[in-house]
Amino acid sequence: MSEPTLFFEDFAPGDVIELGTYEMTEDEIIDFGRRFDPQYFHTDPQAAVDSPFGGLIASGWHTVSAWARLWIDTVVSRADGRGSPGMQEVRWFEPVRPGDLLTATVEILDARPSSRHADRGTVFIGCKMTNQHGRVVMSCHGRGLFGRRHPLSEPAGSSPAPSDASPGDTVKVRSADGVDLNLQMMGGSGPDLLICHATGFHGPAYRPLAQYLAERFTVWALDFRGHGSSGPAPGDDYAWSGMGADVAACAAAVGAERLYGFGHSMGGAALLLAERSRPGTFERLFLYEPIVLPRGFFDQPGNNPLSAGARNRREVFGSRAEALARYSNRSPLAVMRADALAAYVEGGFVDLPDGRVRLACSAETEARTFEASGGLPTEEASAISVPATVAAGTVITGVSNAGVFASAIAEALPQARFLSFEDLGHFGPLEAPGVVAAAAVRELLDG
Description:
The protein has 447 residues and is of the alpha/beta class. The chain has two domains: 8-147, Roll (Thiol Ester Dehydrase, Chain A); 170-446, Rossmann fold, CATH 3.40.50.1820. It is 29% helix and 24% strand. The protein has helices at residues 26-36, 40-43, 45-48, 60-74, 207-213, 240-254, 266-277, 305-311, 320-328, 338-347, 363-371, 406-412, 428-431, 433-446, and strands spanning 16-23, 86-92, 101-113, 120-130, 136-147, 170-174, 180-188, 192-196, 218-223, 259-264, 284-288, 316-317, 349-351, 357-359, 388-393, 416-421. The strands form three sheets. The protein has an eight-stranded mixed beta sheet with strand order 6-7-9-8-10-11-15-16, with helices on both faces. A hairpin with a 5-residue loop joins strand 6 and strand 7 (180-188). The longest helix is centred in the N-terminal third of the chain and has 15 residues, at 60-74. It starts with 15 loop residues before the first strand and ends with a helix.
């Protein structure tokens, strides 16, 4: 094997690489079809005339393979390639017929040094094939691992999560618009997983859930802007696009080559927003009652009862013990498992000089966050092709009816399935963390 001439540093976001052309012949279409995709319109020219395509066409996988051959010949054969974690969002737009001349390109979408391996980085690519008429016949997204040219002399990233982090350690991450975020390592081993919390909560509140997930994952949890130990949003603007930016920043800081996401309520929507902005960020998502609503659902003033309730929250208590006692006997937090509620109270307050405690996420911040919901309308979910499970409880209360939208969200997402939890409500991951975590592990790793 010859010495590589292309390395991770040679792939710059925004670059478009021309890979050359590939001619599809009838003999090759039939041979590939017979071996790998034996449907009659790929293998029998006569019978294919009566197919919906009006003639012989290449298998979509044949088209993907043709692109891959040009990618290998033009780029990977000259590069320090380390394999690929996978491809996603494969789409076929036009039939490919005998004699078609296909042109392949790749766009470099992003390039991220690994925080765990100083000798490599991940390159995110957008793949495309067009025919001789200039029409796109195939597109997909993918990731490639490439060695670094000078792994010992260059840092593995400007703000990486330390590879030797221990449970409870925190990493300070700067979001794209300058918000200082708190990212906590929650323990475990295995592929990395990022927990994204619901409005008004914070990452450490999900510690009981994380303890179950840590049996199969290395678990991280962030505090969104204005929540927990993270800084406020610029100008007190809690538009959910900022929550998506927070997720993207923390995902980059973790620097995982395979990253999974667990999102609850707002956290589920934020995961989808981050994936939409950077396709391929996540390997797979588990979304418990994500707030992805029909366009205009909360457009009318006063139509979001949760914001009004948030502004009426009591912010100051004599102690955390007093707050815990109050929440344990009042809706909606009384449904939470005792250890989850204790974790929420522990990290959800800041100490005041006079010995009292105040909510870390102020009533006004929580209200503004609720009012900004709708950052990702259901109608736009079809553009997000990450494999996902959308889950919901069957218990509907006056506090939240977000679960009624879950099945519609699963239908809107191109690669999603719906999962229902009997006898759980909107706070399911905090009510029964063991039950939800077991399902999440199964869906994320075996789904």
